[in-house]
Amino acid sequence: MRNLLDTRTLGREQALRILDVAEDMADTQQREIKKLPTLRGKTVVNLFFEDSTRTRISFEAAAKRLSADVINFSAKGSSVSKGESLQDTAQTLQAMGADAVVIRHGASGAPRTLATSGWITAGVVNAGDGTHEHPTQALLDAFTLRKRLFGSDSRGRDLSGVSVAIVGDILHSRVARSNVWLLHTLGARITLVGSPTLIPQDVSAWPATIEYDLDRAIGAGPDALMMLRIQLERMNAAYFPTEREYARAWGLDGERLDALPADSIVMHPGPMNRGLEISAAAADSPRSTVLEQVTNGVSVRMAVLYLLLAGERPASEKEGAS
């Protein structure tokens, strides 16, 4: 694997490979000593042009547990905020000897530009670009789904026959886009649920069905209900009347939680707006995978960095990770 820029072009075998290596990584995290020597001598740069404490810390933990050196580069207060271009920043990282760059950027397509420009030889991982994609979030969601639904014996399994309803602000959500493509590639059936104002105008090319009524979507009995964060910072236009109205129509409250099938799970990429898209009762219920998603995110990002920088596992490491 040279780069990880999106899930739309990620093949089924590639996706399963990442998920299976993530299983190995998760096994190593149960040990007393969680650190592996695998990426010793490699340098991973977290290049964040947008704030995201959770994703940055998750990538940092993943790199450090693989013994890589980590450089955190925040655009705020740096030369970037003074007008330095992406090209100048990339060439600086190249001169510093970066082996991998994890980039979050407000412009859709910035990670691809970085990966294909020739400015840098490092592998590039997209940690979220504009309203385009967030591939490692979708991978950790798929990993969490697979583990919850199939238990410890999930290696090599896809998500054929699994139904997932993704609820909320589809329009602005890179998480939704990455999940639609990845879950479809893995065989899942996807329903997008939300206000007509928060569904993109043309989703005819998306492998998903559209539903505007959350209660009807819940009545269909999905295996997983994925609640998206309402991005209040992007709500400068009136996408819905009031927050109270939104919670009433599309929020997951206790009543809707009880209406879900007994074995359905509740997911959320975080951070959560409790009381808006999800109630405290739903967020903290045994069905909720929110904290598991955070834990699994480290294992999945370890797998991505490993496959980017180390390739195939040597036999001794396979034994150690089993």
UniProtKB/TrEMBL annotation:
It catalyses: carbamoyl phosphate + L-aspartate = N-carbamoyl-L-aspartate + phosphate + H(+). Gene3D superfamilies: Aspartate/ornithine carbamoyltransferase. Pathway: Pyrimidine metabolism; UMP biosynthesis via de novo pathway; (S)-dihydroorotate from bicarbonate: step 2/3. InterPro entries: Asp/Orn_carbamoyltranf_P-bd (IPR006132), Asp/Orn_carbamoylTrfase (IPR006130), Asp/Orn_carbamoylTrfase_sf (IPR036901), Asp_carbamoyltransf (IPR002082), Asp_carbamoyltransf_Asp/Orn-bd (IPR006131). The keyword Transferase applies. Pfam families: OTCace, OTCace_N. L-aspartate binds at K82, R174, R229. Residues 2-146 form the Aspartate/ornithine carbamoyltransferase carbamoyl-P binding domain. Residues 161-308 form the Aspartate/ornithine carbamoyltransferase Asp/Orn-binding domain. Carbamoyl phosphate binds at R54, T55, R104, H134, Q137, G270, P271. It comes from the Bacteria. Its EC number is 2.1.3.2. Keywords: Pyrimidine biosynthesis, Transferase. Catalyzes the condensation of carbamoyl phosphate and aspartate to form carbamoyl aspartate and inorganic phosphate, the committed step in the de novo pyrimidine nucleotide biosynthesis pathway. NCBIfam families: asp_carb_tr, PRK00856.1. Heterododecamer (2C3:3R2) of six catalytic PyrB chains organized as two trimers (C3), and six regulatory PyrI chains organized as three dimers (R2). PANTHER family: ASPARTATE CARBAMOYLTRANSFERASE, ORNITHINE CARBAMOYLTRANSFERASE, MITOCHONDRIAL. Belongs to the aspartate/ornithine carbamoyltransferase superfamily. ATCase family. This is Aspartate carbamoyltransferase. It comes from Microbacterium binotii. The gene is pyrB.
